[in-house]
Amino acid sequence: MPKDAAVEEFAGLVRALKARDGRSYEALGRRLSVSASTLHRYCSGATVPEEFAVVDRLALLCGADEEERRAMEAAWTEADRARRRAASPAPTPVPAVSAAPESNPDPSAPEPGPGPAPDPTAPDPSAADLSATEAPRTRPRRGAPAPLLLAVAVALVVLALAAVLLGDPTRTASAPAPASTAPGRTAAPLPFTWSIGSQLWEGGCGHTYLVDRAPRAVAPPPVAADSGAWARTHGAVHGGEALVRITIQGRSPSDAVVLHALHVRVVDRAAPLLWNAYRMDNGCGGAVTPRHFAVDLDRPRPLARPVDGLDASGAEVRKIPAVSFPYKVTSSDPEELLVSARTAGCDCRWYLEMEWSAGGRTGTVRITDGGKPFRTSGTRGRPVYVHDSAEGRWITDSDSGQTG
Prior knowledge:
7 helices, 23% helix, membrane
């Protein structure tokens, strides 16, 4: 299929999604139920998917936000039109049909000239009997012959069907799809800001990471403040549980933003990773367990459930009551939400959606880990290691084999 600007633009967006995710064509293709070669053809612009659904699944898997998905849909729509135009044969031109003047039936005979003026006293020749020796001369019928009329009718039917199936042929390739937001269109800014912390440890010291490395190739545990750099260096994935802190602050001191609900969206489920588990503590424990939203990623439709917290720092254990939606935030009154997402049976990629309203506007914001889904994998049955600071090496923790 010849490439045009719309196909090239769409292929560039698909390549950007693939590069952002970092996985191979084969690994991404398995998640999308397409072959590696098919996904490569999408990225190179050699072909365009026949349905947007596969593109939307790729966007979700690679952490694209709502605005990016709208841009992807608009780009796919234009590329799909180009694909259809390239695949459809051009209609055969139909010669114009007009009434032809009468012609001389005998090409060897001279064209008849103007005759003398009729004699008004002469008898009407049309009433005379034809001579038995003179056969009547047949004159051609006016208009097109029957086969040509049939061809014209068939061509008109074909053109009408093509117009219905392919859309208005007068629309240019640069026209945006009516149901999509054109690429580059700027949406109104959110009435609030949000930020996340995705490398949190329980109590500031307790956490487990899965790392695809042998113990001798893994650095000692970092302090909690340096956990993000340590995890990136080792390609680590949260083991058993991921803690995500969301801080939301309004832009105005007086106009409140109402947060109505927090939804969990799992975009990919796979078998738990067969990696080694490394614990960042040796059972430190925390005096305060904050209230939070608990998410069970192993459920078919995970929910963010508000949970009480506990304060054991004093003489008595004090319960910190859970607070559920709705919340109100302003610039001077921000809100901090803690989400605890656990799994034992999957390698899950997931993100959050926050419903909000303010000043007559409503919307949903997608909360991701820097543009990518959060990732949590179960650790059951994996070798578990703790760090022996005296010997300066990782050792097997035989009592932690059922972690996660």
